[in-house]
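Why predict the complex rather than its parts? Because the way molecules touch one another can change local conformation, and only a joint prediction can capture that. The input here totals 147 residues.
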Amino acid sequence: MAAPVGGRGAANAPKLKPMDTSMRTLSYFCFVSAALYALIGMAMGIFMAASHDHTLSPAHAHLNLLGWVSMGIFGLFYQAAPGAASRRIAKYHVAFATLSVWLLIPGVAMANLGMNEGLAVIGSLMTIASMALFFFIAISTPRIANA
Ligand code: HEM
Ligand code: HEM
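Output of the joint prediction:
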């Protein structure tokens, strides 16, 4: 029996191969989380400006720079290099980068409020570890097929 033509169009939409989907998922995750961090970071900036209390400025700065800027750059990289995005190490990298935002930003905020600095220390170690993973991925990408 012939496949139905027309209708609402969903059946005729181009289908991604399963491998393509997993590669795109990583950069999509980076873009969506980057936008979410930007929204939270900007809301924090507006709150600081409105209250004239800039105590949490470093937390705001690093949320925007690690969350929005760096995560956005990772998304662009994985979009440009699907071969790299399909490697298991890339998923570890994005997981580490995500965890480091979740740990470093509250850690920096706590440190600025004069509370315990332990979370900032753990967060900064996670941040540098995730960048080391990205460094390894970046230098090894030209050598893999379909980069
Ligand atoms: C709605 C958007 C934003 C508002 C209202 C806002 C507001 C602010 C305010 C009030 C400060 C404190 C300034 C001071 O203490 O001198 C600040 C600092 C800062 N913001 Fe934003 N911000 C916004 C978005 C962003 C974005 C998107 C980024 C980065 C991509 C960013 C990066 C920074 C940095 C790096 C600092 C620290 C600057 C320094 O210490 O000299 N901000 N922001
Ligand atoms: C391991 C990760 C990082 C640690 C532990 C760290 C730590 C710090 C510290 C202690 C300051 C001084 C804050 C103050 O004066 O109160 C600072 C400032 C700054 N950092 Fe970072 N940083 C990290 C990553 C980054 C990254 C990845 C970026 C940019 C993409 C960045 C951009 C800045 C900027 C623009 C400032 C000046 C704004 C400010 O004083 O808030 N940092 N950082």
